[in-house]
């Protein structure tokens, strides 16, 4: 069995991840677990690491019983990575990002302006922003190679570009479509060349909302340990997501000033839509927040309500909050196959339950803080029966209508 000094092995592991351009958040997660392993070995007076040490460490974490399931999985991933390095197994990236080219030339200048405006107006996630930058960089390079400028840009040039795409067609066409529409709106092109790209569809079944029924939501509620500091925080977060349908970003940014205790409402400006919404501060939610503030929240001058459990006690991040919800679902023993298990699934579930209860579409839109009812239609798509109940009765057309004026309707 191979063995080596843990200090050197961990450093080699982290250097390899950095050289392979792993995401900073992934490297940070592995570093945390590997440093905890080093502390464990130091407490045992061990300097040399082999696979048996990792197995003993993992077994002790399991027998403690106070660590969440998803944390155990993360520790397992870090140990597998460490064992691969120990046995000289090549470390590979699971996902390889498409190469991004500089936004140069006339198209590049307009693309850069479009991206800056898109970032301000839509407040996309980092992942979405990278997708847009990559897609438009490929588009601008192709236009430069084909000697296309704004004056001779036409549907033929767009068709050639789309035809060159393979598995990335849908991912690339959406940003390009919006960019072409932007050029038309800015009067840089005479026609709206984005129109044909609206007909390029992809298989989007995986985008259907992941839903959990009332019974499953109750199981999640019951699985939360509400007496500990972390449990009090997680319970308040869970209620805000499941009872009010708040997005993870809005829960993370929630501040004391957003809570109006006199009127029992929550008033905030949504991060994603920049729309101001007002939601009821339900008694159960208010009590959970007060319990966390008084008995669970670390002492901090931060105006943000929900903080990390460990020093330096910074506002909790969106990935961290989704991890909390994921941990609650796993602990409740709920089957998640083919379903997402982050914070957003609770928002989808609330919308569907409101629909089943006969709540009208405008009210659901207002509750979720959508800009318009069309955005909310994705939630209706998972409940055909509810959609039929929302439809209006259409009376049958009498035969006399078709036979009027001698039956000219059929001619």
Task: Describe it.
The structure is a single chain. The protein is mainly alpha-helical and 411 residues long. It has 3 domains: 4-86; 105-201, Orthogonal Bundle (DNA polymerase, domain 1); 214-389, Intergrase catalytic core (hpI Integrase, Chain A). Helices cover 56% and strands 4% of the residues. The protein contains 18 helices and 5 strands. The protein has helices spanning 6-19, 24-43, 51-64, 69-86, 105-122, 126-145, 155-163, 169-185, 214-223, 229-243, 248-252, 283-295, 318-331, 344-356, 361-368, 373-380, 384-390, 399-407, and strands spanning 4-5, 48-49, 259-260, 265-269, 276-280. The protein has a 3-stranded antiparallel β-sheet, with no helix packed on it. A two-stranded antiparallel sheet has the order 1-2. A hairpin with a 4-residue loop joins strand 3 (259-260) and strand 4. Helix 1 (6-19) packs across helix 4 (69-86), helix 3 (51-64) runs antiparallel to helix 4 (69-86) and helix 10 runs antiparallel to helix 12 (283-295). The chain is globular. The N and C termini lie far apart (88 Å). Residues 202-208 have low confidence and may be disordered.
Mind telling me the CATH superfamily name of the largest domain?
Intergrase catalytic core
**How many individual β-strands?**
5
Please mark out the parts with pLDDT under 50 across 5 or more consecutive residues, or reply none.
202-208
Distance between the termini: 88 Å
Helix vs. strand class: mainly alpha
Order of helices and strands: EHHEHHHHHHHHHEEEHHHHHHH
Largest sheet: 3 strands, antiparallel
Number of helices: 18
Domain unit count: 3
CATH architecture label name of the largest domain: Orthogonal Bundle
Shape: globular
Q: Report helical residue fraction.
A: 55-70%
Q: What is the mean pLDDT?
A: 83
According to CATH, what is the topology of the largest domain?
hpI Integrase, Chain A
């Amino acid at each position: 069995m191979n063995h080596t000094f843990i200090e050197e092995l961990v450093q080699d592991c982290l250097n390899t991840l950095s050289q392979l351009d792993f995401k900073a958040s992934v490297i940070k997660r592995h570093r945390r677990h590997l440093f905890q392993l080093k502390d464990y070995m130091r407490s045992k007076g061990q300097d040399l690491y082999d696979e048996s040490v990792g197995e003993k460490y993992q077994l002790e974490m399991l027998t403690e019983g106070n660590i969440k399931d998803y944390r155990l999985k993360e520790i397992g991933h870090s140990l597998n990575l460490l064992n691969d390095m120990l046995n000289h197994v090549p470390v590979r990236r699971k996902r390889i990002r498409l190469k991004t080219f500089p936004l140069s030339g006339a198209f590049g200048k307009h693309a850069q302006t479009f991206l800056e405006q898109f970032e301000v107006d839509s407040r996309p996630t980092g992942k979405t922003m990278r997708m847009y930058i990559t897609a438009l960089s490929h588009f601008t390079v192709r236009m430069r190679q084909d000697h296309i400028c704004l004056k001779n840009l036409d549907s033929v040039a767009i068709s050639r570009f789309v035809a060159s795409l393979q598995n990335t067609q849908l991912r690339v066409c959406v940003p390009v479509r919006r960019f072409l529409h932007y050029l038309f709106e800015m009067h840089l092109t005479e026609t709206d060349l984005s129109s044909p790209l609206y007909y390029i569809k992809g298989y989007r079944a995986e985008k259907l909302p992941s839903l959990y029924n009332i019974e499953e939501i109750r199981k999640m509620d019951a699985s939360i340990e509400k007496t500990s500091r972390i449990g009090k925080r997680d319970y308040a977060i869970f209620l805000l997501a499941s009872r009010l349908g708040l997005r993870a970003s809005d829960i993370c940014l929630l501040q004391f000033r957003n809570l109006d205790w006199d009127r029992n409402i929550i008033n905030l400006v949504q991060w994603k839509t920049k729309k101001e919404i007002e939601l009821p501060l339900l008694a159960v939610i208010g009590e959970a927040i007060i319990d966390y503030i008084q008995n669970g929240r670390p002492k901090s001058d931060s105006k943000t309500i929900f903080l990390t459990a460990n020093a330096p006690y910074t506002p909790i991040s969106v990935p961290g909050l989704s991890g909390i919800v994921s941990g609650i679902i796993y602990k409740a023993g709920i089957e998640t196959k083919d379903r997402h298990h982050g914070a957003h699934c609770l928002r989808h579930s609330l919308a569907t339950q409101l629909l089943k209860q006969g709540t009208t579409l405008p009210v659901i839109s207002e509750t979720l803080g959508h800009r318009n009812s069309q955005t909310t239609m994705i939630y209706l798509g998972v409940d055909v029966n509810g959609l039929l109940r929302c439809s209006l009765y259409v009376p049958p057309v009498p035969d006399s209508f078709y036979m009027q004026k001698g039956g000219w309707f059929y001619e």
